[in-house]
Sequence to fold (89 residues):
Amino acid sequence: QPETLKKNSVTWSIYSSLEQSRTAAANVMKKTSGPTIKIQTILDAFKLFFTNEMLEQIVLHTNLYAKRYYDKKIRPRQDSYNIRSDSHF
Fold:
C-alpha cells in the first residue's frame, strides 16, 4: 500500500501531518448558500421541511395513536379501580 496518493493536485497521506497550513482561497466559501438568510429561528428552519398539510397529518395520526393507546392501556385500569357498591367483604 502506498504511503501517499496524488489526485487532482492534492496529496493524500496515510500519516497525519503536524504541519499547519492555510486553506487555499479557492476552497473557502465567501457567501452562505441556500435560503439561510431568511432563517431567524428554529421554527423557520423546521418550516422549510414540513408544510402545514404535513403537520396536520402528523397531528391527526398522533392523536389517533394516543386515543388507541389510552383506550387499550389506561381505560381498563380505571375500570378495575371501580368497586361495585353491592360488594361484601
Remarks:
- Strands lie at 4-7, 10-13.
- The helical segments are 42-49, 52-81.
- Residues 66 and 72 are 10 Å apart (CA to CA).
